[in-house]
Amino acid sequence: MPRITFDGISKSFGDTQVLDPFDADIADGEFLVLLGPSGCGKSTLLRMIAGLTDITSGTLLFDDVPVNHADVRKRDIAFVFQSYALYPQMTVRQNIAFPLLMDRMSGWQHLPILSTLIRARLMRDERVRSQVNGLAEQLGLTAYLDRRPGALSGGQRQRVALARSLVRDPSLYLLDEPLSNLDAKLRIQMRTDIAALHREVGKTFVYVTHDQIEAMTMATKIIVMDGGKIQQIGTPDDIYDRPANTTVARFVGSPPMNLVDLSSGDQQWRQSLRRSYGDGTVVGFRPENVRIVPSGAGIMPGTVETVERTGPESIVAITLDGHADSRTYARVPNDMTPSPAERVSLDIDMSSSSFFDSVTGERTELPVTA
């Protein structure tokens, strides 16, 4: 169960830099999520941890031992790919047991025909059967052990892929967007299953996703990536409540954090905020921290554009006066929902707001003078 240390790790392909150097220390037993949009370098970083992609510079350490050049087979990892990568000719039982069989076979036993006979013999080993049966019961696969992958649903195939990775009891689990091929209902179910597995096995998980809901619900620590750069490292609460910059603020949250730039515009409400928080400041606030009040009664005046009902609440999009290039969102109860085209004002809980430099986009700590 290694502690993972990234010491100046970077990656480039020729003249193309895909991951800028960064440092981080991931404690043993963490559920680390690498979160970011497509092309940000998160899968490349996962493959570097696995040893499938070379490290250009820096040092990767497991429990303070450098592993940059360690053989993949000696890293004691399990890798769950985005595609299920199951053997279609094998049953579920054989797919799950396959890593155990490979560990018990020497080089010459992999010869054609001979390997088939040896695997059949090993499948009758009581220890192998016990491990497979126990894991199948844990993941709800007992009824499907004698089926082939083609006869399973997407969620069942994904559980088989997980079981095949878990059966070896490795020190480190790497998962590359394993839920992206599932429908919404199955993703919710599998998120719960994977989080429960992490708690049960107590090992380090490194999980790649572009889905912020997966990151926020499963992670104990998140690395937010964008454009090959590490934008922020922290707990889900840190990332959500105190984004390090406007890139993180825009990416995390659905709807994302509202950002209002005070550096331009001569509207009265904008001038009032500038006096309190300074020119060159971007104010950020979450939709749940917005209260819609009658026109003239709040801080920011605007016009309701759209109302989206999501069940117990609604997401209201408002165009602020002098801020027509973007929408500001409020999350409100259904019984307090305004109508499209209605003039309203927004009352903002500034105590829970974030502030950023309008030039660099980096988070700033500002004294409240209003």
Question: What can you see in these coordinates?
Answer:
It is elongated, with a radius of gyration of 25 Å. Helices cover 28% and strands 31% of the residues. The protein contains 10 helices and 19 strands. It folds into 2 domains: 4-241, Rossmann fold (3-Layer(aba) Sandwich); 256-364, OB fold (Dihydrolipoamide Acetyltransferase, E2P) (Beta Barrel), CATH 2.40.50. The strands form 4 sheets. A 6-stranded mixed beta sheet has the order 6-7-8-3-9-10, sandwiched between helices. The protein has helices spanning 42-50, 92-104, 114-123, 126-138, 154-166, 184-201, 212-218, 236-241, 246-251, 268-277, and strands spanning 4-13, 16-26, 31-35, 57-62, 65-66, 77-80, 172-176, 204-209, 221-226, 229-234, 258-261, 281-285, 290-294, 300-309, 313-320, 323-333, 343-348, 354-357, 363-364. Helix 2 (92-104) packs across helix 4. Strand 4 and strand 5 (65-66) form a beta hairpin.
